[in-house]
Amino acid sequence: MTDKKVYINGYTTTYIDSGEGIPLLFVHGFLLNRLMWRPQFEGLVDAAHLIAPDLRGHGDAQATPPPYSMNLFADDLNALLEAFEIREKTVLCGLSMGGYTTLAFFRKYASRLAGLILTSTHPGADSPDRRLNRDKAIDTVREKGVTAIVDSMLPKWLAPKAYLEKPDLVAEARSIMERTSVEGVVGALAGMKERPDSTPDLAQIRVPTLIIHGADDQAIPPQEAQKMHVAIAGSKLEIIPNAGHLLNLQQPLLFNALVRRFLTSLS
Ligand code: MLT
What we know:
Blueprint: E1 4-8, E2 11-18, E3 23-27, H1 38-43, E4 49-53, H2 70-83, E5 90-95, H3 97-109, E6 113-119, H4 128-144, H5 146-157, H6 160-165, H7 167-177, H8 182-193, E7 209-214, H9 222-231, E8 236-240, H10 247-250, H11 252-266
Parallel strand pairs: 3-4, 3-5, 5-6, 6-7, 7-8
Antiparallel strand pairs: 1-2, 2-4
Residues 29-30, 96-97, 192, 219, 245 line the site of D-malate.
C-alpha cells in the first residue's frame, strides 16, 4: 500500500488506493484513519477499485479548526471523488462515524452512489447525555492528550475475547488511533455532537445496502443495526459473531467475504 497525497476542500490528506472496477470508498471511524482498512486492501484488491482516505484531522491528514460536521466530511469525500475524476457510481463503506458520514453523503450526493455498506453504525443523533460526554471528552483530550482518549475507547472497541487474547490486534488498533491529532479529535467530537438524526432519511435509500455489525459491539449495540435493516427497504443485515466495534479488523475474512458477495450482487 503506497501512501499518496491530495489537496481537497482546503486541506491535504493522505490516501491509499488499489485495484480496478467499481469504486469502493472506505470511510473510517472516529480516532481512526485509512490504515484501519489494511485487511480489506489485502483481501479485496481483485474485487473493486479500493480507495481509503484519512478524514481531516485524522491519521496523516491536515487538521483544520473544529468542528467537523458530518456534512463537511461528506463534502470532503465528494471533493476527493471529483479530484480523482470518478464519474462511475461508487459504493461507500463507512464504519461508525464513517457511517454517520456515509448517511450525510447519501443526503447530499445520492446520485453518486451505487450502494452502501453501513458498518458498526446507527442513524440517530446524540442523546443529551452523549452530548455531555462529548464535551467531557473534548476537555480530556485538550488536557491530557490523545492517548487518554485511546485508553478509554480501545477496550470497548474490540470484543472482550480479542482484547484479552490478541495483543497484536490491540497494538495495531492503538497505533492507528494514536495517529489522530488533538485538533482532529476535538473537531470530530464537536461535529458528532451536533449531527442531525438521519433516521427519517433511511426510508429514502433506494440503492442496495449491506449492514454489517459485530455481535459483541460494546459501543453501538447490534439492535441498532436491526432497526436500520427494518427501515432501509431491501437491505441485508449480517451480524458477525466474536466481533466488536472494529469488526473489519477483528473478523477480516468474514467481513471481506460479505463485502465481496455484495459487490458481486451489484454487477
Ligand atoms: C466511532 O467509532 O466512530 C465512534 O464510536 C462513533 C461515536 O462516538 O459516536
